[in-house]
Design goal:
PH-domain like, four-stranded mixed beta sheet, 21% strand, alpha+beta, elongated
Amino acid sequence: MADAFAKWRNRRAARPAAPQAAAPVAEYKTIYLNRGWSGIMLLLWTPIVVALILVMVLHEAELNAIPYSTGLRVLAMLLAFASLAVVPLVLPTSRRGWTLWRDAVEIRERPYVPLLGRYRHARLPFAEIAIARKGELLSGMEMFELEDRNGRRYRLLPASVGSGKAATIDHQGFAGFIDVIRETIRASGVAVPPGEELRTATSGLAGVVILSLVTALFGLLCAFGAYLLLAEGEPVGMQALGFGLPFLLLFGGLALNRWRKWRAGGA
């Protein structure tokens, strides 16, 4: 009996094999926090939260007349304090992935919370890379940046490896990925772009001023909490102190450290 599918099999076997897609040289994915926008949002959001607390204290008599007002005020206070951490940290955060090909770097960016941020996709040929920059953040974490010939900038931070208490920063893998980019560009025959020091908003004297302002804001919050607790006997003052004091010490220490580096002629 003749094979009804013989012609189909022969035709399929005679087809040329489809070319396989080239495999990327390397990939790196990370979570990126835009610290510039985070600082701006913290500066804008903190006065709003402080004003909310002030309104609740000044209108305590009117609020007491509302049923279940005590529980609602405590809930509103907790949400307000939580928003000081959530709003400046979550909204400016994005997921970033860099894929290194033999002739280009492909960059994908999307918001950490869907729809609450911009989406960006770019393929950057090696010949279009104008400058490569590398710098250090306040925390000591490295940052890498590529700028194309049109002035568009793309930044990458080290990823976090592991979870919970075992989580660590992938400094070694991050440095290795940067080295692979450099060597791949050199192997492609394109001139390696010049390197520069990456300067951020918290570099130099500007960083001292910004950190001092943030420290002053949390200092005012702590002073207001101390006044409520000691002069008015309001328990909410203890909550304000408990929230503001750690941030006061944190940003105060960072401002002092940045001031010393600036005086010494560093970043």
